[in-house]
Amino acid sequence: MGDEPLRLMLVKAVAQLRAATDLTMEEVIGVSALPESARTPDVCYSLGIIEGAATALHATPREMLEDHDLLIAPKRE
Questions:
Q1: pTM of the model
Q2: Could you read off the pLDDT of 26-35 as tens digits, one per residue?
Q3: Distance (Å, rounded) from C-alpha 42 to C-alpha 66?
């Protein structure tokens, strides 16, 4: 898989997680226990995408998201 398809998949997963919870990405990937109310199938799927991609790249989820500039949300205007 090339960089662009991977990035698009990660962007979608991160957007799903940001929309579903008030936690930052740092908190989401740093804490393996999300509140029960936030554990929807889509959220679990997005977490799996991030974990799986990081494992495939031999990186931590934090390192991978940093490399793709997805760890910190863009500033809203």
A1: 0.80
A2: 777 766 667 7
A3: 22
